Structures are given as structure tokens and as C-alpha cells.
Amino acid sequence: MATTNPLQFIQQVRAEVSKIVWPTRREVMLTTVMVFIMAALTAVFFALVDLLIKTGLQGLLALVG
Asked: Could you tell me the residue ranges of all domains in the chain?
């Protein structure tokens, strides 16, 4: 592994940091809203699946027992 002197390392770090593209405030807000919407849709989906499984099992148990 090649060693780099501290000055070169700092220059390389600054060059890499300058390549970072930060999102705008609008982009952050939009993606945050999208995450909340997707989380809510996922919660509703799994609640419906849970209700369906519960109803099916209760019907099966009522039929057998």
C-alpha cells in the first residue's frame, strides 16, 4: 500500500468533496413526502393482508372446531 504525505491527502480529500452535489431544499422536501407516502401505503397494505389472514384463519378454525 503506497503512502501519501498529509498535504497530498488533504488535497485529494478537498478534490473529492468538491465533487459532491447537494440536493436542493425542494428535492429534500419532495423525497421526504414520497417516503412518508410510501410508508403509509405499505402500512395499509400489510394491515389489509393481516386482516385477510386473520379472517381466513378464524373462518378455518370455526369450520374445523
From this structure: 25-65
